[in-house]
Write a structure and sequence with these properties.
It contains 5 helices and 2 strands; from the N terminus they run αααβαβα. By secondary structure, the protein is mostly helical. It has a two-stranded parallel ribbon. It is globular.
């Protein structure tokens, strides 16, 4: 609960402020690395409900009303293990097992969004994964 309490204001308002800046542009597209539902992956049901109660929002308001689409790139720890570790990312501190569990939790947190796409690691290679991500984004854009 500490993680959310200390960062709740940041998590709740920062993406909205970015979006406000983008509306000044013609046909803006805002890509963000993390969304507010990501915090759900790190707490139990009781803690999550306490957070929702405290901020006065529902899962649907946080998940479905704030984002037009969600592209979830599955962790390298699930299907591309040779690329997971501190060699490729020095700030990474999670074990492979923990990273897999967090990824599953993230998928559960975002599941239900009307434009939710999971980009897995079944096809090998980061460039292929990025191309699949771009294809999904273009398809969502129409």
């Amino acid at each position: 609960f500490f993680f959310f309490s200390s960062r709740r204001r940041h998590t709740r308002f920062l993406p909205v402020s970015w979006a406000r800046r983008c509306v000044q542009e013609t046909d803006p597209i805002l890509l963000i690395d993390r969304g507010v539902m990501d915090g759900r992956a790190y707490c139990d049901d009781q803690a999550w409900q306490a957070i929702l109660d405290e901020i006065g929002l529902t899962v649907v308001q946080l998940r479905d009303k704030r984002y037009n689409a969600v592209l979830h790139l599955v962790t390298a720890a699930d299907g591309a293990e040779t690329y997971y570790g501190t060699d490729s990312n020095q700030s990474r501190h999670e074990s492979i097992e923990f990273a897999r569990q967090v990824d599953k939790n993230l998928q559960q947190a975002w599941c239900g969004h009307p434009n939710y796409v999971v980009i897995d690691n079944k096809q090998k290679g980061f460039d292929i994964k990025m191309n699949r991500c771009l294809e999904a984004a273009f398809q969502l854009l129409g």
